[in-house]
Design a protein that fits this description.
Residues 141-151 have a biased composition (Basic and acidic residues). The chain is an alpha+beta fold. It has one domain. It is built from three helices and seven strands, in the order αββαββαβββ. The strands form two sheets. A five-stranded antiparallel β-sheet has the order 4-3-5-6-7.
Length: 151
Amino acid sequence: MPRRRELKGVVNNLSELLSGRNNDYLGYWAVGQLFILAQEHGVDSLTLNLIDCKSDIVSPVLVDMCQSMKSEVNRMLAAHQIPREWVKSVSAKFSFNQEYQEKYHYWRSALGKPYLVQVEIETDLGYINKATQGGNVQPHDPSKEHLRGSF
């Protein structure tokens, strides 16, 4: 029998997935692509609504990327047998050019600029589950990155 408190584990897993190297879009790391998109639009953060696939920035690439993230949310909810009606909203905020925090950015600036991913899931009862992950990111550059093999 599923319980709403399982959403705490879902939000932690989702934040790790969105921050991790397995979060890719068209074979390249999604966070690097989001970073370059944020730079192009002159902003330091992007917030994605992973239910409606809406964002602060209007971009067809961002809508496509959000659809991929939304499918991961749905997969996680289904794995825990959590009814979709229990989830009011799911948001992911990608913040770039962050200050160094040892907990998230332990490699310092050697691998790029610090970033954070903050994920929130709000239940139908109004309870909000939050999780944060971070790391270092460089802007997406296909000449310096390896394309994942299946693309």
